[in-house]
Amino acid sequence: MNKEIISSILNGDRRAIAKALTIVESTTDKDRALTESLISKLFEYKNTSTRIIGFSGITGSGKSSLIEEIGKRLLEQNKKIAVLAIDPSSPIHGGSILGDKTRMSTLSNHPDCFVRPVPSKFNNGGISRSTREAVSIFSAAKYDYIFIETVGVGQTEYSVSELCDCFVVNLLPATGDELQGVKKGINELADIILINKADGALETQANLTVNEYKKSLMKPIVSTSIYAPEKIEEIIKLIDNFFFTETETIKIKRELQNQQWAKSLVVNDLEQIIDAVTEKSKIANPYHEKKQLIEKLKKLI
Amino acid sequence: MNKEIISSILNGDRRAIAKALTIVESTTDKDRALTESLISKLFEYKNTSTRIIGFSGITGSGKSSLIEEIGKRLLEQNKKIAVLAIDPSSPIHGGSILGDKTRMSTLSNHPDCFVRPVPSKFNNGGISRSTREAVSIFSAAKYDYIFIETVGVGQTEYSVSELCDCFVVNLLPATGDELQGVKKGINELADIILINKADGALETQANLTVNEYKKSLMKPIVSTSIYAPEKIEEIIKLIDNFFFTETETIKIKRELQNQQWAKSLVVNDLEQIIDAVTEKSKIANPYHEKKQLIEKLKKLI
Question: In angstroms, rounded to a whole number, what is the distance separating the alpha carbons of residues B187 and B218?
Answer without folding.
Answer: 8
